[in-house]
Amino acid sequence: MNSVQSNERTGDRSVAVVRVADTQWHAVENDRVVGRGDASHRPDGRLFVSVDAWHGPVFDRIAAALVADLPAPLYTVVDEADDESTTAWQRAGFAVGRREWGYLVPTDPEVTGLGPVRPPTGTTVVPAGAVEEAPLRALDRVVREEVEAGAGWRTMPAEVLPRPAWYTPADPSQYVAARESDRYVGLVRVAPLPRQPRIGLIAVRGDRQRRGVARALLAHVLGSLHDRGTASAWAEVDETNTAATALFGGIGARRAGATLELVRR
């Protein structure tokens, strides 16, 4: 959580920042906690920090303590519309590292134009609930190897991070897969969140891309959501991922905000 309210000044030198645990800091004024800082390692090894403080000067003091106590590089995430938080982190030496667009994705085939989409010849769609663990894990491993050899983990969502070779996707029931012969060549992960399903990942083997596999998978997922009465889903896409932005733009998805990843090196 990153929050700052700078219109009320609290610049009293009596505010002290204390490290209360390996990953936690408190800003204390007159024996009262007036702000908090936190740090956490993501699965890919990057160190993310956050600050919760109502006043700009308190935010600055906590951020300065984090920078002084922790090794660079440090990362944090803010809503692009939150100018105050972005400016506060910039005062601490952070700069924009990447932007991730949020998309509101319609499910109605009349809107998406995905109604008649069929998978390529020789490829079938395996629906959620029928996806098998072994071929899913094999495809997951291939995707990770291709990411590592190409764009790198920096541009990947949380579902695609370096993990041990024995790792199994947490819940195969949340995946829809594309099968070709005895192997999976593509997948979509959908998290069934209470308010709005989230499309967390779309991935296709490099040697099977540009054949319509991703569109066929997305058509199946969105069509199934529409049949259950869900009007839209949510998805996030790195702004540099031109294939994904073109895919969502081509089915009527609407940009509905953006998240900035800030870094201090």
TrEMBL record:
Domain N-acetyltransferase: from-to ranges: 129-265
Keywords: Acyltransferase, Transferase
Top-level taxon of origin: Bacteria
Secretion signal span: none
E.C. no: 2.3.-.-
Gene Ontology molecular functions: acyltransferase activity
Pfam families: Acetyltransf_1 (PF00583)
EC class: transferase
UniProt xrefs under SUPFAM superfamilies: Acyl-CoA N-acyltransferases (Nat)
Name of this chain's protein: GNAT family N-acetyltransferase
